Amino acid sequence: MKTSTRDRILGAGADIIHHKGFNHTGIQEILNAAGVPKGSFYNFFKTKEDFGLQVIDYFSDHFARMAKDILEDRSVPPLERIKRILRNFMDYFRSTNFTRGCPVGNLAQEMGDLSPAFRDKLKGALDRITTGYAGVLTEAQKAGEISNQIDVKETANFIVSSWHGALIRMKVVQNLEPLENHFKFIFDYVLKP
Amino acid sequence: MKTSTRDRILGAGADIIHHKGFNHTGIQEILNAAGVPKGSFYNFFKTKEDFGLQVIDYFSDHFARMAKDILEDRSVPPLERIKRILRNFMDYFRSTNFTRGCPVGNLAQEMGDLSPAFRDKLKGALDRITTGYAGVLTEAQKAGEISNQIDVKETANFIVSSWHGALIRMKVVQNLEPLENHFKFIFDYVLKP
């Protein structure tokens, strides 16, 4: 299937924004990377902000597809699925030399204060991520893997937020220690029977 | 005491960078806010990056002074001091309408990948913060408030990282819920006797 021009612009832009952030990325830079002429951009995106909002959907859909395969694999016990997705991310960040972090977390940090439209879109993307984890935690409760006393929504929020914080530290120390530390505290202290 | 021109530039720049990030902040904007002529900037700072590194020191020193008063107040039990500093921050973020977040965490997210000089400076600032918490956790162990089995350095790293992640979420949901959720998980699950 031929990639559409819109998808090429989105893919190239998402890649640069994941690395450099939204404000620090120029439209021309995106078009150069996508190999399309400047006029094309405004055929598909009203403004740079509109483009940014569509990049968030792009990231969110990408995460959802990846997460679905792992988190909804009912042949694997629920907690093991959460361990697998976190280990999957660790493999990814090993491959990036501990750079980039979570694109949704990055944009929430960078743009949450600056644009109401980004804020709403990012809120939706973060809710979608935490809802995925909460579903698996509910299964873990039914399977007796974790206490029925914990609030799965609050716990899912804590897992995702603390992960985003660990990714911030990872960028600075340039190793997986913050992610391994997150994994340890989540599974040794929070997700217990 | 008259504020020096250098300090006025630093203070004004720190304030704007805390809000908008480093790359999105221009030197002219900082000088306008500080009310000093352009030539002044390069009397004190070699480059914009050099300025950014001095802003990190400014934030780090600001945090250290604030933290010292609370975390080293031996008239208060150790865990209560950690609760107090987190509640202090919550009051601050209530006053900012849940914006801004931690300037050191923000810059680690934004600049960790992009500048080795920022990365090293931010690593030092984050180590300084976590060392402060680790010291209080050691006191909490001696006082029997928390288990002697926990590794105070790892725990301090987890508290600080998960806090930074909660601040990211705060910017998007625009309320204190992520910070209150962090507080709950840290004190109900991690910092126990």
Structural class per helix/strand content of chain A? Answer: mainly alpha
| Percent of residues in beta strands of chain A | under 5%
Q: pLDDT average of chain A, as an integer? A: 96
Quaternary form: homodimer
Which series of helices and strands of chain A comes N to C? HHHHHHHHH
* Strand segment tally of chain A: 0
Large-scale geometry of chain A: elongated
Number of helices of chain A: 9
Approximate helicity band of chain A? over 70%
Q: For the largest interface in this structure, which chains are involved and how many residues does each contribute?
A: A-B, 45 and 45 residues
Low-confidence stretches of chain A: none
The biggest beta sheet of chain A is recorded as: none
Radius of gyration of chain A: 18 Å
First-to-last CA distance of chain A: 47 Å
Which short descriptors sum up this protein?
homodimer; mainly alpha; 9 helices; 0% strand; elongated
Quick overview of this protein structure:
With 193 residues, the first copy, chain A, is mainly α. Chain A has helices spanning 5-20, 27-34, 38-44, 48-71, 78-95, 103-111, 116-142, 152-173, 177-190.
What does this structure look like?
2 copies of one chain form a homodimer. Chain A has 9 helices and no strands. In chain A, helix 1 packs across helix 2 and helix 4 packs parallel to helix 7. The longest helix of chain A is centred in the last third of the chain and has 27 residues. Chain A is elongated and about 55 Å long. By secondary structure, the first copy, chain A, is mostly helical. Chains A and B meet through helix 6, helix 7, helix 8 and helix 9 of A and helix 6, helix 7, helix 8 and helix 9 of B.
